[in-house]
């Protein structure tokens, strides 16, 4: 704790005020900002799902690609407070995109190689490839999780080892983040310590999780409903004042056949709803309403205005 406090007080002139800020573990109150104490920053981790063509591979996690339109809307709503938000992307589609595209190219003259088939091929193979395998570190599962580790380390560099984090996860990205958090929680239960050195990297400072276009329920049918165990709150290392009651919000468009409510997935998810820890939120993304599947809706969450307000609201609560 002393090293974290030293880092926060370095070069500043108000140790008493900084101690108050540290104990509150939130943005400095407005009355203190006038004395020159800078607001603490929070982090946002954004991960995509299926059918994302970013055109880039993972490199600089601060370079915005698929989430750029969402960030523009959110930052516009936040105003000057946006300067206290560190936004990082997790890009993983390039890990298997080359293999998918190579196969698709070979079947163009043998099938109706249209956009619908390409979408289904991408969606099914993304989900099939993302699984634990016997070769461990060589698996797509571990390669994707390594990308999350890179993004979390980048966040820690900017907001510190105990900084608050918000996760925004689209489609399969929700399943990926749930697994990543679950694996770290199980590791801590087995060996009584975290896998990494800091609470942030051990996913213990995640104030909130927002999923959209989420298809986690599809992956749960391999288990009897009574044996399905959700992740525990990943913000248990945050001060009580920074912890959220409804920490998981799940947004879905009713016309998006790849998006599902979480509360009906298993008894323990239903209990999370009853306890107000999880909230399913139906939305309409503004594409034409149809009686069945709207094929445009699954990829429309990023650019739509419907999510910008709740994301900005959640960030504002975290900033205090």
Describe this protein's structure:
- The protein is an alpha/beta fold and 320 residues long.
- It folds into two domains: 1-40, no CATH class; 41-96 and 143-319, Alpha/Beta hydrolase fold, catalytic domain (Rossmann fold).
- It has ten helices and six strands.
- A six-stranded parallel beta sheet has the order 2-1-3-4-5-6, with helices on both faces.
- The protein is globular.
- The two termini are 22 Å apart.
- Residues 1-37 have low confidence and may be disordered.
Task: Write a concise keyword list for the protein shown above.
Rossmann fold, alpha/beta, six-stranded parallel β-sheet, 320 residues, disordered N terminus, globular, 6 strands
Run of helices and strands? HHHEHEHHHEHEEHEH
Question: How many individual β-strands?
Answer: 6
Whole-number radius of gyration? 20 Å
CATH top level class name of the largest domain: Alpha Beta
Helical residue percent?
25-40%
Strand order, largest beta sheet: 2-1-3-4-5-6
Number of helices: 10
């Amino acid at each position: 704790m002393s090293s974290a406090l030293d880092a926060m007080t370095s070069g500043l002139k108000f140790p008493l005020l900084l101690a108050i800020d540290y104990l509150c573990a939130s943005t400095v109150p407005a009355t203190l900002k006038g004395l020159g104490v800078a607001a603490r920053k929070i982090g946002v981790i954004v991960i995509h799902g299926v059918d994302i063509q970013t055109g880039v591979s993972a490199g600089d996690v601060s370079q915005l690609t698929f989430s750029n339109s969402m960030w523009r809307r959110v930052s516009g709503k936040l105003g000057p407070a946006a300067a206290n938000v560190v936004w990082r992307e997790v890009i993983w589609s390039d890990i298997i995109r080359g293999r998918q595209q190579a196969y698709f190219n070979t079947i163009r003259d043998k099938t109706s190689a249209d956009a619908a088939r390409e979408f289904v091929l991408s969606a099914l193979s993304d989900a099939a490839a993302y699984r634990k395998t016997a070769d461990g570190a060589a698996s797509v599962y571990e390669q994707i999780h390594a990308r999350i580790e890179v993004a979390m380390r980048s966040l820690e560099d900017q907001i510190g080892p105990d900084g608050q984090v918000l996760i925004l996860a689209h489609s399969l990205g929700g399943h990926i983040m749930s697994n990543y958090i679950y694996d770290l929680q199980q590791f801590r239960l087995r060996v009584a310590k975290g896998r990494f050195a800091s609470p942030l990297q051990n996913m213990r400072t995640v104030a909130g999780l927002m999923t959209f276009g989420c298809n986690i329920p599809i992956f749960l049918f391999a288990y009897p409903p009574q044996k399905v165990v959700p992740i525990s709150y990943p913000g248990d290392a945050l001060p009580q004042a920074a912890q959220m009651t409804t920490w998981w919000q799940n947004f879905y468009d009713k016309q998006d056949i790849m998006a599902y409510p979480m509360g009906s997935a298993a008894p323990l998810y239903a209990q999370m709803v009853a306890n107000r820890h999880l909230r399913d939120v139906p939305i309409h993304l503004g594409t034409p309403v149809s009686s069945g599947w709207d094929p445009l809706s699954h990829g429309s969450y990023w650019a739509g205005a419907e999510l910008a307000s709740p994301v900005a609201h959640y960030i504002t609560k975290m900033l205090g």
